[in-house]
Design goal:
Helix 8 links the parallel strand 2 and strand 3. Helix 21 crosses helix 25. This protein has three domains: 361 residues, Thiamin diphosphate (ThDP)-binding fold, Pyr/PP domains (Rossmann fold); 209 residues, Rossmann fold (3-Layer(aba) Sandwich), CATH 3.40.50.970; 178 residues, 3-Layer(aba) Sandwich (Rossmann fold). The strands form six sheets. It has a six-stranded parallel beta sheet with strand order 12-9-13-14-16-15, with helices on both faces. A five-stranded parallel beta sheet has the order 1-2-3-5-4, sandwiched between helices. The protein has a five-stranded mixed beta sheet with strand order 18-20-19-21-22. The protein is α/β, with parallel strands linked by helices.
């Protein structure tokens, strides 16, 4: 069979038309090969669910051949493998670079089987060889201890999308094709998955894909009628209504329905050829200079087949195929039920395995010939192992964006604005491998410098009132955290770099995606064949402590806790207190691989503490003593340690130290700032954990520590567990007290203000000089004064609002 390479769009329209015509009309030999491949895949799928012996049915099936626990999902699998077979034919005939994303991730056995039939699985896992012993290992490992899960997990060659948590297949697919012009992402959407919120919002991806420099996504909505225990919404709707829904989203809808064979092979081949031809026409027009700039109507396919297609029609007189009963394991009581055992054997033999595998147990030539060669196999695509394609960013020198700091806390600046300038130059230097993803908040989060070099991506209509928006843009803004997060995941997993920036409280909208991505990276770290990919970088700003007008709904630092609970091999949390530390942290994160990097810093003008050289050293250590903020000369242990992690709480901590220095000068106060939160655990608990010696140098062995933290107080207790006398850490942080109020009032409401910290220091210091009681009384009076002042004046007291170190130095 001749491969006609048209993926570079140099083919003429006539060439394309003729190729599409041939693709649409497979001959009898091609259909026979497709059907054999599909039968083999179905056989392997059923075998993975049921068998622990007798993999080729060389003898009658017996109870001991059946696994003790039957786990897996059959219902969606035959549809997934049917599509896979036909896409493989398309690839072989055209040379089209493609990846396959299975939204119904529980169809894992179908995708594992596909990789096995293509030979990739045995290349990656040599013990799962292409013979009878390898086939037995393939079956026994599925959903078994020491084996593989039932999803299209990270262990599955060709996968960038597990699908275990439904709703993300399209966002991953769209992210994968951005700046990836030759890639076609086949995204199979299950009709149960189509009911989820993230998936419902993700159809809008076509409004952001530019056919000049992006690849294409072909969504295939697979309506098989049922989910785990009932019907699905779209499957029960009038087909005309469903068609109008997706036409309203902007898709060119192609439909196919049936279960008859070989008719379905012919019809699907024609439908897939038509969809591919339309994609190539759109891309050819755009890249050939004939495009008018309007949003293309990209094709999608709606495929209706019975759930559990080719499985047992009825079991014990009850209909199974085409119903929810085929969703998982149709014959769940095989062991000990002779009728069910015979029904299972009949089902397996219906695929005629003796025609599909030779005497050694290897797939026959008819099946092997369906797969394309080498890296064109979807299970072997380097796009699905994106670290193989990753190129380092051309990084500007982050020092070039430094803020001059002559003395700590002398001036204020919007720290994230400097990061925006750095990302502006990343866009310029890396036009094909760096993007910012942000839910309509780029300017709000002070990152707008990127618009100096790129518009927002948008393929819908624009008008004269629109600013920095258009079809050539590569800044990704859509008011959906799920879309932005998922696009970046797909972008990362196919080898490109970026950042997801969002308001802190609403990072919880997509927190589950953060968790799932961390799990993917964690598992990938155990697979030597998985190349490391660019890290998932998340910037949280508009933080809990500075949402002056939005109020309590916008006040929540929960994602920190979420990331802290992930494994140390992937989780990183940074709390830079100023612009220079932010730049140093960002440079590190953009260079890193296979981490979830969470950076938290506010966008409002804030005091600047460290010179760039100091910031670099501080970030390298992860934490350090700020000698200038305390009065601890290092000759012995201090009386109290004031520690902090986070920008606003750092200011409150330094202010508290200054109050103590002025009013209780004989009290020895040490100030410790933590920028890398993962420096606090023990080295055995996290690779960034500081040594026992360094921990002792910062926090001593027995002096009480008043720790002011950006997030929930329990996080610090979790991190210092196992450190010397961990109970001496008294943590102040966000305790779910908030409203529409002033910045300082937020710290007061959460009992983390400078006055609360001073009182904590007095209550817990090793020794107290004269005047401590009077100072506590003064703090209480200041809090009372504050409470009345903000109500009367609608702003914070001048001594708080305009505070700087210079104020205290001059007294």
């Amino acid at each position: 069979m001749t491969v006609t390479a048209v993926s570079d769009n140099r083919a003429t329209a006539l060439d394309l038309q003729e190729l599409v015509r041939r693709l649409a009309a497979p001959d009898d030999a091609e259909v026979a090969g497709l059907d054999a491949w599909w039968r083999a895949n179905n056989y392997l799928t059923v075998g993975q669910i049921y068998l622990q012996g007798n993999p080729l049915l060389r003898e009658p099936l017996r109870n001991e051949h059946i696994k003790p626990r039957l786990l897996g999902h059959w219902g969606t699998s035959p549809g997934l493998s049917f599509i896979y077979a036909h896409v493989s034919r398309l690839i072989k005939r055209t040379g089209q670079q493609s990846i396959y994303l299975a939204g119904p991730g529980h169809g894992g056995p179908a995708l594992v089987a596909a990789g096995y039939l293509e030979g990739t699985y045995s290349e990656v896992y040599p013990k799962v060889s292409l013979d009878e012993s390898g086939l037995l290992r393939l079956f026994r490992q599925f959903s078994s201890p020491g084996g593989i899960p039932s999803h299209v997990s990270v262990t599955t060659p060709g996968s960038i999308h597990e699908g275990g948590e439904l709703g993300y297949v399209l966002v991953h697919a769209f992210g994968a094709v951005m700046d990836n012009p030759d890639l076609l992402a086949i995204a199979v959407v299950g009709d149960g998955e189509a009911e989820t919120g993230p998936l419902e919002g993700s159809w809008k991806g076509v409004s952001f894909i530019n056919p000049e420099h992006d690849g294409a996504v072909l969504p295939i909505l697979h309506l098989n009628g049922a989910k785990i225990a009932g019907p699905t919404v779209l499957a029960r709707k009038d087909p005309a209504e469903v068609r109008r829904l997706f036409e309203g989203h902007g898709y060119d809808v192609l439909e196919i329905e049936g279960e008859d064979l070989p008719g379905m092979h012919h019809r699907f081949a024609a439908t897939l050829a038509e969809a591919w031809g339309r994609i190539k026409t759109i891309q050819g027009t755009a890249r050939g200079g004939q495009w008018d700039g309007s949003r293309p109507r990209w094709p999608m396919i709606i495929m209706r087949t019975p759930k559990g297609w080719t499985g047992p029609d009825k079991i014990d007189g009850i209909t199974v195929t085409g119903t929810w009963r085929s969703h998982q394991v149709p014959l769940s009581g095989v062991k000990g039920n002779e009728d069910h055992l015979r029904e299972l054997e009949k089902w397996l033999r219906s695929y005629r395995p003796e025609e599909l595998f030779d005497a050694t147990g290897a797939p026959v030539a008819l099946i092997r010939d369906v797969a394309p060669a080498g890296d064109l196999r979807m299970s072997a695509s380097p796009h699905a192992n994106g670290g193989l394609l990753t190129r380092d960013l051309d990084m500007p020198d982050f020092r070039d964006y430094a803020i001059e700091v002559k003395k700590p806390a002398e001036g204020r600046a919007e720290s994230t604005r400097k990061l925006g300038e750095m990302m502006r130059d990343l866009y310029t230097r890396n036009p094909d491998r760096f993007r910012l993803f942000c839910p309509d908040e780029t300017n709000s989060n002070r990152l707008g410098a990127v618009f100096e070099v790129s518009d927002r991506a948008f393929m819908e209509g624009v008008n004269d009132d629109d600013v920095k928006i258009g079809r050539t843009g590569r800044v990704m803004e859509v008011l959906s955290e799920h879309n932005c997060h998922g696009w970046l995941e797909g972008y990362n997993l196919t080898g490109r770099h970026g950042m997801f920036a969002t308001y802190e409280a609403f990072a919880m909208v997509s927190a589950s995606q953060t968790v799932q991505h961390g799990k993917w990276l964690q598992e990938a770290s155990h697979l030597p064949w998985r190349a490391k990919v660019p890290s998932l970088n998340i910037l949280l700003t508009s933080t809990a402590w500075r949402n002056d007008h939005n109020g309590f709904s916008h006040q929540g630092p929960g994602l920190i806790q979420v990331v802290l609970n992930q494994r140390g091999t992937v989780a990183r949390v940074y709390l830079p207190p100023d612009a220079n530390t932010l730049l140093s942290v960002a440079d590190h994160c953009f260079r890193s691989r296979s981490y979830v990097n969470l950076i938290v810093i506010d966008k409002q003008p804030q005091l600047q503490w460290l010179t760039m050289d100091q910031a670099i050293e501080h970030c390298a250590r992860g934490a350090g003593i700020w000698d200038w903020a305390g009065n601890d000369d290092g000759a012995g242990d201090p009386d109290i340690v004031l520690a902090c992690a986070g920008d606003v709480v750092t200011m409150e901590t330094v202010a508290a130290a200054q109050i103590l220095k002025e009013r209780l000068p004989k009290l020895r106060v040490r100030v410790v700032n933590v920028v890398d939160l993962m420096a606090l655990p023990r080295p055995k608990d996290h690779p960034h954990g500081m040594s026992e010696t360094m921990f002792r140098e910062l926090f001593t062995d027995d002096v009480d520590v008043v720790f002011s933290f950006h997030g929930y107080p329990g996080a610090i207790h979790q991190l210092v567990h196992g450190r010397p006398d961990a109970d001496r850490f008294r943590v102040r942080g966000f305790i779910e007290e908030g409203t529409t109020t002033t910045p300082f009032d937020m710290t007061v409401r959460n009992r983390a203000s400078r006055y609360h910290l001073v009182m904590d220091a007095i209550n817990n210091a090793k020794r107290l000089p004269a005047g401590a009681t009077e100072l506590k009384t003064w703090c209480e009076s200041q809090l009372a004064k504050h409470e009345q002042y903000v109500v009367d004046h609608l702003e914070d007291m001048p001594e708080v609002r305009d505070w700087s170190l210079g104020d205290w130095a001059e007294r």
